[in-house]
């Protein structure tokens, strides 16, 4: 509800500005991991999983080169190793060796500034960046138990039980650098994406979300240029 309220306020503010409004529907795919800081002697980047996401970027032109906007969307983040996690349930001593991969489903609302310059003909280059909140809406773990007969179990996140220590909110910086190519009345955008989270996913230890990806989107105009 908080994210929806913030989105409504930002969209209303954009609507009152003079200039062209555009909508870009974008998907991205890449890798996600967590930064464990000095808490654990492992490199979080080596524990990456597949990342994907979808967003709707709504921008309002402020000048010929600068736009401001929001990008509500869904992002899959997580890591192939989750230090500090220990499975509960029907386990008997001695506890088996195990490994946990965590998949986190976030809805997010960054506020962004875009700067764009033409290169030649229909081709342009652009960069955009900004910060915003993400909310952990759900997710699950794949837990592999190692033993005489290895087995894997999938468990949904339980925010009212074992996973009450997880931080449902994240705040991070989103960066994008890419190219735009006008096709007809719209524009195809190809970009490199990066997310840098500032809040620990697990409140008990360092677990900062990171992801990179390659984005592909298509932009249309929602209003005429004033």
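Q: What amino acid sequence fits the structure above?
A:
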């Amino acid at each position: 509800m908080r994210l929806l309220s913030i989105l409504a306020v930002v969209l209303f503010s954009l609507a009152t500005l003079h200039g062209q409004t555009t909508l870009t529907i974008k998907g991205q795919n890449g890798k996600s991991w967590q930064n464990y800081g000095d808490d654990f002697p492992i490199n979080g980047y080596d524990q990456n999983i597949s990342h994907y996401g979808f967003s709707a970027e709504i921008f309002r032109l402020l000048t010929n080169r600068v736009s401001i906007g929001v990008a509500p969307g869904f992002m899959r983040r997580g890591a192939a190793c989750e230090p500090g996690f220990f499975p509960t349930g029907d386990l008997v001593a001695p506890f088996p060796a195990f490994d946990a991969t965590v998949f986190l489903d976030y809805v997010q609302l960054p506020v962004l500034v875009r700067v764009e310059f033409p290169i030649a003909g229909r081709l342009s280059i652009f960069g955009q960046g900004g910060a915003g909140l993400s909310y952990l809406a759900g997710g699950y773990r794949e837990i592999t138990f190692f033993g005489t007969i290895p087995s894997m179990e999938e468990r949904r996140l339980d925010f009212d039980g074992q996973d009450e220590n997880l931080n449902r909110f994240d705040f991070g910086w989103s960066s994008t650098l890419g190219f735009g190519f006008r096709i007809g009345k719209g524009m195809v955008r190809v970009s490199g994406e990066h997310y840098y989270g500032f809040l620990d996913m697990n409140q008990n230890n360092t677990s900062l979300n990171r992801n990179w990806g390659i984005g592909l989107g298509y932009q249309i105009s929602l209003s005429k240029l004033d």
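Q: And what stands out in the fold?
A: The chain has a mean pLDDT of 87.
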